[in-house]
Every structure is written in C-alpha cells, then in structure tokens.
Write a structure and sequence with these properties.
- There is one protein chain.
- This protein is mainly β.
- It is built from 3 helices and 38 strands.
- The protein has 2 domains: about 325 residues, 5 Propeller (Tachylectin-2, Chain A); about 190 residues, Jelly Rolls, CATH 2.60.120.200.
- Strands 2, 3, 4, 5, 6, 7, 8, 9, 10, 11, 12, 13, 14 and 15 form a 14-stranded antiparallel sheet that branches. Strands 16, 17, 18, 19, 20, 21, 22, 23, 24, 25 and 26 form an 11-stranded mixed sheet that branches.
- The longest helix has 15 residues.
C-alpha cells in the first residue's frame, strides 16, 4: 500500500512538471538561504544517552568499573559527580559502539585529574580520549590506543590553550570508520583539536570488532579530584560539513516528493578520504527546513561495514526495492589491503532514508577511477543509462549503458572535454539533461545521452568565491505547481573546516536557490 501511495505521488508529480524552460541553461537561480551543520544537537539522531537527571539506579543502568582506588560517584542535582581524595581509575558504561557515530561528553567542572571517553574492545584493546584538568580548567587533551598493558599510540594536542569552566565544556569524538577526530565545544563554538587513524592496529569497520566494543566515561584522579558531568551521548550526526548532494528518485529519475518533502543523499564530512560517510537529508522545498534523517553503511559481504560515498539511490517501483549505485571510496580505508576503487550496485528492502541503515553492495564491472554515478531507466530504449565521472586525463563526464541495472555497463558517450564532478541527470520540460560541476566555477549543461554542450546554469550568488574552488554539484529539482518557484537548486560550497592538518575534504554548507525561467512567453 505504501509503495502504491508513492507511485501515485510520483505519477501526479510527472503530470504537474512545468514546461517552462527550453533547457536548464534558461533558468535563472537566485539564492534563498545557506546553512552549515556542525554537530548540531537538534540534528543528532540518538543512539544512547547517559542523562543523570533521569537515572534512578545508577549502577543498574550504567555499570561501574573500579580499576584502582575508591572514587565516589553519585547523582547530585541532575549531574553525575565524581570525587576522590586519592589516585583512582574508574569507568562508567553508557553505550555500545558504532564506527560511524559521534560521542559527546559535557562537563560543568573538573579539577585535579583527567576525564574523558574510553572505547573498549573485548579482546583488550582500548581507545581513550582524555581532558587533562587542573586549576578549574581544561589544560590539555590526550588520546591513545592501548592493547593490554602496552601503549601502541599516544598523542597530545599541541599548543593547547587552556579553557576555564566558566561555561560547560564538551569533548566530541567523531568516529570515522578507520579512525577518529577530536573536537572541543566551548562557548557554543566547535574547535578541531586533532585526529588519528587506528586501522593499522584495529579495524573498527569489522563487524566482530565493533560488535564487541562499548563506550565508557573514564576518570583518572589525583588528590582533591572533583568532576561534574551533565551528560554523555552517542548519536549519528551530520558531521562538520555536508557535500555531494543528490536527489533520491524513482527508477526513471523523478525526485521523490513524499509528504511534502524532498529526499537527498549528501556526504557527512569529517576529514579526507576515506573518513566521510553517506548521509540522508530531507527538505520541504517551499521553505528551508533541512533535516538530517539518517546514515547509510554498506555491506559487501566481506565482514566490514563500509563508508562509501557519492551515491544515487532510487526506489525501484516494480519490485518495491531500494536500489542505487555508490563509489567505493572505502578502498582507501586500509593502506595495507590496496583495494581497488570502483562503482558498486547497492540494494535494500528496508527504506534506507531514516536512522542507521545498511545496504548490501556488490561489484558491477566498473572497476577503476570512476566517481559520482547517477542512473536512470530509459523507457524509450529499454536500457539503463548511467552518467558518471571517469578519470581520463582528469575526471570527465561520460555516459554508460546496460540492459540491467547492476552489471554490463559500457560507454556510449563521452568523456567530455571539460573537468567534471557531481554528474547528474535531470528532466526539465520533459527532456533529460546532463549536468555537472566544473573547476572553472560553473555548472555545465549538456544534452543527454550524447553530451553535447548546451550552456551553463545562471546563479546570482554562486557557492564559490572568485578564486575559490568551484567543483561542486548541481542538484536541480523541478517542482509541481503551488511552490514559490518551479525549480530549486540545492548545492554546497567547498570551504574546509578550519584547523585540520594534512589533506582533507571537510566542506561545506548547503545553499538553496529558487529557479525561474528566463524564456519569454
């Protein structure tokens, strides 16, 4: 019944699509709104919480481990208060473990010891991230990886500026499949402190590993220790930047507009490759109420949960199955394995748009330096056609075709002469067009499937500066009558999050545009 309802919505949409512009190049786009999510608490999807104000039996809900000493742990005025008159080591359990989750610990005060998060693997390995507290302030941050009694890795934030506890301070640990990032939230500002990978010691993506892990609040005290903890949480978050936005569609490429909301895949950022993950967002296109809806991991049947990116998902109406294609950027996850980058076919009977979802993935013969697949079933030819970026002296748009959606694709057009990213197929006025971003800071429009150049999109305030990086995606969506504009463009910028050392892709912010035809009538 639900699938039939979706089909009726899509059918009505197709009848209402405006025949306004001759091509997308004839649409004038004006920016309406911009927003970047940086661990927004109102967008976090909860996995677990330690909330002292709602705890009745502390040790029943959150078991304790006393490693040494005898610190006192009690609930006081809605806070978890830890005190110690001498050296001690104590851990409080608060959640299981997800290798793509964000963990946050908030304190209102701490002195004479360390307070932090600990992620314990049943085989004896542990990741620890500690706030080093003294003089009623955070004096430093240290993170480590240990195996039994052996310290394998130990790092400390360089040139750390002390933060006094005049306001609550939060430690944020963003898991990124093969490692983690460390942030501090103070005065409602999020600051990157450091990052590290641990895959060479412990592959957190392995099911038998993360299923045997748990998250704890840990204190290491000295004489006169005191800490007041307001909460600890585990959640799925949109990260520190969002990019690679693409509409979720039906098998013919019509964007899903369901219950007044459009649905998109978008990358949730936290570093370079292979650290980001595949997020899902929704939007009421009459306003700008972006919602982070979920995160997708991919299972290739090799014992790993993988963080592939740049996906196109579609509802296959004949079967009711969710299908699509993704780019196997997780090939860069473990340098020792030297896996190959490729395009994967993905599928799921569960609706992958909400919560934490796992889609099965499988090779489909497109092995090599391909990116950003977007496909449709073309009823006129009876073929599946895919627009993607192929590295041929640089990434260039090309069209591939097959009799089946998940194998047998061969190139029928392209590659184009110009640099390409975010290759997208969209129907305007009943005709399919190919769109892609470009290093020349513009959105190109080509015919489909033969890729003849037709012009560029027109934007009043483009999502790049005169000298900035303009390789972003043109996510254009036609709307039925009754909306403020017949088209929207939801795209992003490439402003990296400040402070991250080394190669990183931590961009960007969402930018919403309304589109109106410039064709005289």
């Amino acid at each position: 019944m639900l699938i039939r309802a979706r089909i009726s919505i899509l059918a009505a949409l197709s009848l209402c699509l405006p025949a306004i512009a001759e091509t997308p190049a004839d649409i004038r786009f004006t920016r309406q709104a911009s927003r970047r999510m940086v661990f927004d608490r109102d967008q976090a999807i909860p996995l677990a919480t330690l909330d002292p104000s709602s705890i009745v039996d502390l040790e029943l809900m959150h078991p304790l481990k006393r490693h040494s000493g005898s610190a006192e742990i009690k609930l006081v005025s809605g806070k978890l208060v830890v005190t110690a008159g001498a050296a001690s080591e104590t851990s409080v359990w608060f959640s299981g473990f997800n290798p793509f989750a964000t963990y946050e610990l908030e304190l209102t005060s701490a002195d004479n010891g360390d307070v932090g998060l600990e992620f314990i693997h049943g085989a004896g390995e542990a990741i620890r991230i500690d706030l080093l507290c003294a003089n009623k302030s955070v004096q430093g941050i240290r993170w480590s990886f240990t195996k039994g009694d052996q310290t394998i890795l130990k790092e400390e934030a360089p040139d750390f500026r002390p933060r006094p506890f005049e306001q609550p301070i939060s430690l944020i640990v963003q898991m990124s499949a093969v490692g983690f990032n460390v942030f501090l939230r103070h005065h409602d500002q999020v600051e990157l402190i450091g990052r590290t990978d641990v895959v060479q010691h412990l592959d957190l993506r392995r099911k038998e590993v993360h299923r045997a892990m748990s998250a704890w609040v840990r204190t290491s005290t000295r004489s006169g220790f005191h800490a007041s903890i307001t909460r600890a949480s585990a959640s799925i978050t949109p990260g520190i930047g969002q990019a690679d936005i693409r509409a979720i569609t039906d098998e013919e490429g019509t964007p899903l507009l369901e219950n007044g909301r459009l649905w998109f895949t978008a990358t949730t950022r936290g570093g370079g490759l292979p650290h980001p993950a595949q997020g899902v967002f929704s939007l009421d296109p009459s306003i700008f109420d972006l919602r982070f809806e979920g995160l997708i991991a991919f299972d290739r049947g090799d014992g790993l949960l993988r963080n592939e990116l740049a996906s196109h998902l579609f509802l296959h109406r004949p079967s009711g199955e969710w299908r699509g294609w993704t780019t196997a950027f997780s090939a860069y996850g473990d340098p020792a394995k030297q896996e190959k980058k490729e395009i994967l076919a993905v599928r799921s009977t569960k609706d992958p748009r909400c919560g934490f979802s796992i889609m099965n993935s499988a090779p489909m013969g497109l092995v090599g330096d391909y990116e950003d697949p977007h496909g449709i079933f073309d009823k006129a030819s009876g073929k599946w056609r895919m627009l993607l970026c192929q590295n041929v002296g640089g990434y260039k748009a090309a069209v591939f075709e097959s009799a089946t959606w998940d194998a047998g694709f061969s190139r029928i057009a392209g590659p184009v002469a110009s640099d390409s990213t975010g290759t997208t197929i969209q129907k305007v006025g009943g005709v399919n067009y190919a769109l892609f971003g470009n290093a020349d800071r513009s959105f190109h429009v080509c015919s489909f499937p033969d890729l003849e150049p037709l012009g560029k999109l027109s934007l009043d305030l483009p999502p790049w500066s005169a000298e900035g990086n303009g390789r972003v995606w043109p996510n254009l969506v036609p709307l039925p009558a009754g909306y403020p504009a017949p088209y929207i463009l939801l795209t992003f910028d490439r402003a990296n999050f400040p402070g991250m050392k080394g190669p990183n892709w931590t961009y960007g912010a969402f930018h919403l545009y309304h589109g109106h035809s410039s064709v005289a009538r």
